[in-house]
Q: What sequence folds into this?
């Protein structure tokens, strides 16, 4: 999955692809580099970010999705709003990536169910301005599995086909670095949500996250050379 943030304030590339033409070009480039799907989002979810109005989110993402879909690039839409998801699907998106797992907009599961598209359900404890205050766990893997299981049960009860559900542990969302590493070590448990009897695909959004930089930093805290051996399985 390649990511195109059509925002001025995303954590790693805010502003780089803010214009529609630049964003379409970036999506085209990611597809050429091997991305199976390009994820287009118009609302920053970095810690502390404030929400934008729905009409602004639509203005940012719909031209980009339309442009990429017209070139047969598979597109997912990263949104918490059913209104934006509906417009994105009409514009050619084929997957809904909802970082709130349906909590931010109760209409989202019904929309996804009617559309019959894959639905990424992420572990989420609140919007960006409050989420880091909620990064408190006694057992992060067990609690994330339990909270995700409740969300998956809710969206399935809302009509979403279980075979269309993808789960996402939400690295960095109400998570400190030690929480992220614990979740990465336990992806098998996450895929089963600690024993639901169903194995779900897992989406891991780790790219460029701060916890990776902290692990690999030089002693003074500056960016250091990678200490992770690169193999075909760890690229």
A:
């Amino acid at each position: 999955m390649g990511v195109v943030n059509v925002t001025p304030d995303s954590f790693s590339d805010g502003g780089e692809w803010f214009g529609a033409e630049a964003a379409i070009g970036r999506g085209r480039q990611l597809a050429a580099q091997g991305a199976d799907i390009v994820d287009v989002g118009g609302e920053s979810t970095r810690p502390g970010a404030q929400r934008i109005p729905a009409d602004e989110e639509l203005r940012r993402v719909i031209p980009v999705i339309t442009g990429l879909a017209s070139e047969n690039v598979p597109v997912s839409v990263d949104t918490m709003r059913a209104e934006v998801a509906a417009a994105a699907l009409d514009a050619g998106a084929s997957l809904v990536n909802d970082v709130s797992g349906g909590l931010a907009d109760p209409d989202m599961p019904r929309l996804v169910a009617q559309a019959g598209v894959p639905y990424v359900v992420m572990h989420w404890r609140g919007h960006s301005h409050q989420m880091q205050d909620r990064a408190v766990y006694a057992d992060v893997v067990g609690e994330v599995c339990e909270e995700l299981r409740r969300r998956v049960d809710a969206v399935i009860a809302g009509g979403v086909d279980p075979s269309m559900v993808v789960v996402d542990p939400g690295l960095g969302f109400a998570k400190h670095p030690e929480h992220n590493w614990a979740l990465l070590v336990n992806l098998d448990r996450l895929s089963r949500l600690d024993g639901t009897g169903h194995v779900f695909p897992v989406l891991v959004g780790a790219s460029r996250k701060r916890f990776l930089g902290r692990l690999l930093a030089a002693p003074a805290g500056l960016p250091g050379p990678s200490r992770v051996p690169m193999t075909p399985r760890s690229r």
